[in-house]
Amino acid sequence: MQLKNIKPPTFHPADSIVASTAGGFLCHSIQGMCRDVKAHQPKQPPKLGGNRAALFVYATVGLENMAFIANAISLVTYFYGYMNFSLTKSATTLTNFMGTTFLLSLFGGFISDTYLSRFKTCILFGSIEVVGYAVLTAQAHFPQLRPVPCQGVPPTEMNQCESANSTQVGILFAGLYLVALGNSGVKAALPSLGADQFDERDPKEAASLSSFFNWLLFSITSGAIFGVTFLVWISTNQGWDWSLGVCTIAVLVAFLFLSMGKPVYRNNVPKGSPILRILQVFVAAIRNRRLSVPETTEELHEIHDKEAGIGSEILSRTDQFKFLDRAAIVRSADDESRLRTPGPWNMCTVTQVEETKILVRMLPIILSTIFMNTCLAQLQTFTIQQSTTMDRNLLGFQVPGPSIPVIPLMFMSISIPLYDRVFVPIARKFTGIPTGIRHLQRIGVGLVLSIISMAVAGIIETHRKSVAVKHNMVDSAGPLPISVFWLGFQYAIFGMADMFTLVGLLEFFYAESSSGMKSLSTAISWCSMAFGYYTSSVMIELVNKVSGGWLGSNNLNRDKLNYFYWLLSGLSTVNFGVYLLCSSWYRYKKVEAKKADTCSSDPEGKIEMGRV
């Protein structure tokens, strides 16, 4: 074929005009259709949740805990040196404050799940916390609101110091417990708000959810490091009014920053009182106690498909606590006609029954972790007092006693990224579990480490007292010739224990709870710490009475604190045995997520949550 004989087509001017006109009309029409399509096309909403939203939570947690943990560590010295409380009263006042803070988180969780969203709960309770810090700042600033500080006085003459009057004590407790109330609501709602930004039913986001709790602890640790160094230095060198003032500003900024992230949050909708739903199950089960429990789940009451709502969580029936299954028995027409008040108090759904079973199964787990937090309370009270009797010199710099916890905090800040980025991926390859190891296994590792920490604490205290005797400084108010960094051993081990147990508990309770009680379950996990602090106060009083005064004087060099540490180690060993029984008995929940739409990535609608 010869191309040279092919003539190019010829165009007349008229053809060009027609072509141009047609092309212009066609282009104009296409552009018009495009504009018309764009005009009718709905705007895509901005992507909500994910790591971008979680960043606001991390920052808020860091700033808020910078203030809270710094005071949790050092307030015992404020009570002892500025409010002129005795050593024992200083320790019990702090542990009672900490215990109340964590216990009140149940109230915050109830408010969050029942009436307010998690975001609104954080803002409301955060405002209360700011007011509490402002009250404490005012008392520390104005001398007439507190007694004359009794500092530099030998321990044997502390009873000669001026005691705080009732008004001064009242102002102190008002500020403390406003902080406790505000912080409790934040503790219940803020971790759940952050976890809500990841969908645990999405395999990709499930792994991110596991990392979230690790990085949440990293944020807490980072804020705490800054608090126990910078804020403690301020309180020691510039005064408590400056330190508490910085705390007030930091917490205020934290919740202003949390508010900035509101447009990108996935916000939960309160689903009514979880406590009321649980009570309904018990009442219905008692009313139906004479009925036999059906063998098949299909004979029990459940709401499926569109009735349950898109994305609703439906829990599968388990074989434990079968008595509660009576609450979901479907009565015959004759039985229903005899009921004067038919409704949720007579018949509940299987999901509602399983929600109640989950809470009942969780109780032994939470009870068996309380004693570890009793040990933690000692590191925030007696160990801080130990540090004030030791040489705190570091390269010419005098390290404040309450700053010693920076040792485990630094250790944790290094360990958490290694755990999340190295250990979890490796473990995940072997176990197939998104979290690497199961939640209950992680908690168990922490309990073992807490036993070791208390045993080491007893050995270090024995050595410290031997130094006091050797240098004839048993009744001296001056520092002993032994470095304060000896306390770093017990702190470092317990820091690792906290990394395993605290995150394990938070993740366990969030993952295992139903969608309608996430905040309340998070609050339950904090209650382990609450009862741990209360148990510490009881233990101190009980040990003093039974032992004849192991911790009875204001002089640690004469007390038997080392015996007390070893007693805690022994009791922790017994507690660990109880935990092993409880964890082996526990049954993980099973979720059947049925959606109203047909475009589900899980066509069979069943997601197995067991052993995660």
Automatic annotation (TrEMBL):
Protein name, per record: Major facilitator superfamily protein
Pfam families: PTR2
Superkingdom in the source lineage: Eukaryota
Keyword entries, A-Z: Membrane, Transmembrane, Transmembrane helix
Main localization of the protein described in the UniProt heading: membrane
UniProt GO cellular component terms: membrane
GO MF terms held by the record: transmembrane transporter activity
Annotated InterPro entries: MFS_trans_sf, POT_fam
Family of the protein in this entry: Belongs to the major facilitator superfamily. Proton-dependent oligopeptide transporter (POT/PTR) (TC 2.A.17) family. Belongs to the major facilitator superfamily. Phosphate:H(+) symporter (TC 2.A.1.9) family.
Coiled-coil residues: none
Transmembrane segments: 53-81, 93-111, 212-234, 240-258, 358-379, 399-419, 440-460, 480-511, 523-543, 563-586
Entry annotated with the keyword DNA damage: no
UniProt source species: Actinidia rufa
Topology with respect to the bilayer: Multi-pass membrane protein
Record localization: Membrane
